[in-house]
Structure formats: structure tokens, C-alpha cells
Specification:
By secondary structure, the chain is an alpha+beta fold. It has a single domain, classed as Orthogonal Bundle (Cytochrome p450). It is built from 19 helices and nine strands. A hairpin with a 6-residue loop joins strand 5 and strand 6. It is globular and about 90 Å long. The N and C termini lie far apart (about 90 Å). The chain binds protoporphyrin IX containing FE (HEM).
Length: about 500
């Protein structure tokens, strides 16, 4: 009797397993059926490796896809994440169609968010359609050059704390861990501009540690892959976008500041104030104020810190570039009577080129994501990108393609001496959904670099492993140590 139960049970398992296998094999023929060139997938992870054991960053996978498709002379191709088909355009004209010309078919990013359990996760970064358009229209005025200029003094105050630390390292001849130091500065900037508080992360690490924990937990590879591949199941399982404990801490902090400002009628020149003014005028509600402050952190914390870290690494590695930049910085500041003003920063053209080149080699967001919202036929073909198909634009592939950037592994700021940036250069995205905070981010990076370069000279500490383990995105930050020397007061 028991033996027949076991046989029955095993038969059921074998049948279910065979059916699953047949389904998986069929699902992985999607691109072949659509006559789209594709890269061979395997079961069960598609064109990716096991996310639990392989930590390769998404940007690198797509760089590889780009190179394989280009080698085969294709303009686009298909890959799979598990069984979900992903369209990968590798021709600049198709990228332009998706991001710009046919934006109405591709306005969604398809990012995971869970509004029911975490209302602040429905932000400009994640929502789509009309809701996104309205929010973007409301928020655009808070990111103009004029508004950012009013926050310049806050950034300078935060940079002074960074300078103190640079000075201490130079005097005590202690190597500086740049990644850690600049993330403390970006924490202070977020604290003062978005949360309206002075954090001084070099001495008090509370906000810094909270933001760090969120950043690290959010880059959990498996959770990310799972939530992007199966967002509805993730919502059903009530998986939050951000770790709840840390999020509650920063919301508490924010609410205290909002209450304080409202009660005491305190007015400040910061991003939070712009949002509170909009709330007063009935343009947004308190939940939206919270969501945008959190968004400021989500979109601006790691992106800015990573750009600053890699710029300093390249400056330390390329002594000549460092010397030339120092010459410019010192000359421009002298022209402005020794004061680092907003206008002085805007005059530093070589500094801008150094940042452009850093963002080419190390774009902090190395793939752009879109979701097709309406069937779309690729011009001059009969290939249809179907509604709901995910699209990943392999930014790193373009940025390292010698056809567009000669000697792509070399750090050559001069390649950006032309005013017009090539259309294969995408560090801030392209089209209506491009980065809204680009000016703010760049200004912060510029001030950070100036803090290092104005009075100091720096080189890589002997412990830095060279060549630098290839940049691999948010979670895997390389440890960059700098030896700093004071050369002028
Ligand atoms: C060097 C620093 C930064 C880099 C490299 C960067 C890069 C990007 C990229 C690649 C995107 C996606 C664009 C697309 O899909 O076409 C993006 C979107 C966005 N970024 Fe940035 N970013 C930076 C700093 C910031 C800062 C400081 C903020 C805010 C304070 C910010 C706010 C946003 C927002 C809100 C979006 C979504 C815009 C939308 O969907 O309408 N970013 N950023």
C-alpha cells in the first residue's frame, strides 16, 4: 500500500516537473517566435547567472550583451531574466526612439514599488503615465539653476566638514578612505537640503549609518531580481521597496522638522522649504512632501558619492590631469578674489570635462530601464515590441564602445572639450524622463573635488589594488585609499 502511494507521488512529481520544463522551454522561445535576434538563454535564470551566488552587476551583464549583439552586426536583440523577455537596443537611433521620439509608448520604467505598504515608494522615480507627468511638472521648478544656486551655501558648509577631514588626514599622514568620506559629505548635503537638519556625519554618524544601511539593503541582488521579474507576486508577499526600520527612522526625523518649521514659522533656503511652500499652496500633500525627500536620498545619495569617489581615483591615478585641474581651480578662484562662488564653479570648464569623463567610465546607473506601454513596431521592420515588454538600454556598452569613444579604458577628459555631448553618452539618461537632479548632483561633485584639489595633492595609497577591480555598481564598492599632502594654506 505504502509502496503504491510512493510510486503515485513520484509519478505526480515527475509529471509536474516535466510540465514545468516544457513551459520554461516554450517561454524561452519568445524572441525566436518574434523573429528578434537573441542571445541563448539557459534554464532557470535566462541570460543571467544565479543571483544568489553571482554578484556581477546588471550594468556588466548588459555591457556583455551589447558587445555580443554588436559583434553579430545587430541593432537590437532579446535576452531573458528568468523567463521574462527583455529587449536590448544597441543602435543609438533605436535608443533615441525609445527615450525621446516615441516616449509616449515608453513612459514607464517598470520599477518595483509597493504603495500599499510603503506610500513613499510611489515617487517620481517609480510612478508612470499621467501621475508621473503631473509630479514631474510640479517638481521641475525646484531643480532649476536659480533654485540650486540658493542651496550652494549649504553645500559649501558641508564641504567645509569634508575639508577638515582632508586636512586631518594630510597632517597626520593617515590614508583617507575616500568612499566613506564623500558619502558622509553627501549625507550632510541630503540632511541639510532635503531633511532640513545639520547632521555633521564626520562626528555623528546616525543619519550616515541609516542611509548606508538602506543603500546596502536595497541592493540585495536576489530581492532586486525577484521584485523586477515578478512585481505583482512581490507586492502580494508585501515585500517593501525600502527596509522599513530605517525608512521609519528618516521619516520620523523629517516629520519632526516639518512640525518644527510649521509651528515656529521657520523659513530656510532648501529643498524641503520649496516642497513645504508647494504644500502650503495646495500643489502637493504631506505624503508627497515625504516621498520627494526620500526620493532625493534614493536618487541622489549613491549616484553623487560614487561619481565623486571615481573622479578622485582617476585624478590620483592620472597625475597630469590632477595638475591641470588644480591650475584651473586655483586660477579661477583667484579671479574671484579668493572666494569660491557659484559663478566661479560654473567657470571651471576643465572640471566639467573631468566629471563628464568620470561619468562615461563609471556611470553610477549603468543601464536605463523602460517598459513598453503600447505595442510598438520598430521602423523599417515588421518586428513589434509588445506591451509590457521590459527594455534595458546598455549604457555601459555605449560608453565603452571604441566606435564612439576611442581608447575607452583610458581617462581622457579632453574628449569632452566640445560643447555638444555625443548621443551615445547617457549618464543622466535622455528625454522627458532624464535625471531631474543632474545640475544638483554635478554641483555637489564639483564642490567635493575642489575641496581636495584646492590646497592638497593626493595619490593612491600603496594598498589600493591596481588595476582597480572593475567598477561593479552600487553594492560592490572598491576600497580607494588616498595619501594626501597639504601644499598651500
Ligand atoms: C552624478 C549624479 C547623478 C547621476 C549620474 C544621475 C543619473 C540618473 C539617471 C541615469 C537617471 C535615469 C534617467 C533615465 O531613465 O532616462 C536618473 C533619474 C533621476 N534622478 Fe538622477 N542622477 C544623479 C543625481 C541626482 C540627484 C542629486 C537627484 C536629486 C536630488 C536626482 C534625481 C533623479 C530623479 C528624481 C530621477 C527620476 C526622474 C524621472 O523619472 O522623472 N539625481 N538619474
Amino acid at each position: 500500500m505504502l509502496a503504491s502511494y510512493i510510486t503515485y507521488f513520484i509519478t505526480i512529481i515527475v509529471i509536474l516537473f516535466s510540465l514545468l520544463l516544457i513551459y520554461l522551454k516554450w517561454a524561452l522561445t519568445y524572441w525566436r517566435r518574434k523573429r528578434v535576434p537573441y542571445l541563448n538563454p539557459t534554464i532557470p535564470f535566462g541570460n543571467f547567472s544565479n543571483p544568489l551566488t553571482n554578484k556581477t552587476s546588471i550594468g556588466f551583464y548588459y555591457k556583455r550583451f551589447y558587445e555580443e549583439l554588436k559583434l553579430r552586426g545587430k541593432e537590437f536583440g532579446g535576452v531573458y531574466s528568468f523567463t521574462a523577455p527583455i529587449f536590448v537596443p544597441i543602435h543609438p537611433d533605436i535608443v533615441k526612439l525609445i527615450l525621446l521620439q516615441e516616449f509616449s509608448n515608453f513612459h514607464d520604467r517598470g520599477f518595483y514599488y509597493n504603495e500599499k505598504d510603503q506610500p513613499v515608494s510611489a515617487s517620481l522615480l517609480t510612478v508612470a503615465g499621467d501621475r508621473w507627468r503631473k509630479l514631474r511638472t510640479k517638481l521641475t521648478p525646484t531643480f532649476t539653476s536659480a533654485k540650486i544656486k540658493t542651496m550652494f551655501h549649504l553645500m559649501i558648509t558641508c564641504a567645509k566638514m569634508l575639508e577638515q577631514q582632508i586636512n586631518e588626514c594630510a597632517r597626520s599622514k593617515t590614508p583617507m578612505n575616500v568612499g566613506d568620506s564623500v558619502r558622509r559629505m553627501t549625507t550632510d548635503v541630503i540632511g541639510s537640503c532635503a531633511f532640513g537638519i545639520e547632521t555633521n556625519s564626520y562626528k555623528v554618524g546616525t543619519l550616515y549609518r541609516t542611509l548606508e544601511n538602506i543603500a546596502v539593503k536595497m541592493t540585495n541582488h536576489f530581492k532586486q531580481t525577484f521584485c523586477i521579474a515578478l512585481p505583482n507576486l512581490a507586492r502580494f508577499l508585501r515585500i517593501p521597496q525600502m527596509p522599513s526600520e530605517e525608512l521609519n527612522l528618516i521619516l520620523e526625523l523629517l516629520n519632526e522638522t516639518i512640525e518644527f518649521r510649521t509651528e515656529k514659522k521657520v523659513i530656510k533656503n532648501d529643498f524641503l522649504q520649496l516642497l513645504l511652500d508647494m504644500k502650503k499652496d495646495g500643489v502637493i500633500d504631506v505624503n508627497e512632501v515625504q516621498a520627494q525627500c526620500v526620493l532625493f536620498f534614493l536618487a541622489g545619495y549613491e549616484t553623487t558619492a560614487s561619481t565623486l569617489t571615481f573622479a578622485l581615483y582617476e585624478l590620483a591615478y592620472n597625475e597630469n590631469v590632477q595638475k591641470q585641474l588644480k591650475k584651473e581651480v586655483v586660477a579661477v578662484i583667484a579671479k574671484h578674489d579668493g572666494v569660491l562662488t557659484y559663478e566661479a564653479v560654473q567657470e571651471m570648464k576643465y572640471l566639467q570635462m573631468v566629471i563628464d569623463e568620470t561619468l562615461r567610465k563609471y556611470p553610477p546607473i549603468a543601464t536605463l530601464k523602460r517598459k513598453c506601454t503600447k505595442d510598438f513596431t520598430i521602423p523599417n521592420t515588421n518586428i513589434v515590441i509588445e506591451k509590457n515588454t521590459a527594455i534595458f538600454i546598455p549604457m555601459l556598452g555605449f560608453h565603452y564602445d571604441p566606435e564612439y569613444f576611442s581608447n575607452p579604458d583610458k581617462f581622457i577628459p579632453e574628449r569632452f572639450s566640445e560643447e555638444n555631448l555625443p548621443n551615445t553618452y547617457l549618464p543622466f539618461g535622455l528625454g522627458p524622463r532624464n535625471c531631474i537632479g543632474d545640475r544638483f548632483g554635478k554641483l555637489q561633485v564639483k564642490i567635493g573635488i575642489i575641496s581636495f584639489i584646492r590646497n592638497y595633492k593626493f595619490k593612491l595609497n600603496h594598498q589600493v589594488q591596481l588595476p582597480l577591480p572593475y567598477f561593479s555598481g552600487f553594492a560592490d564598492r572598491p576600497n580607494i585609499l588616498l595619501d594626501i599632502e597639504l601644499i598651500a594654506e
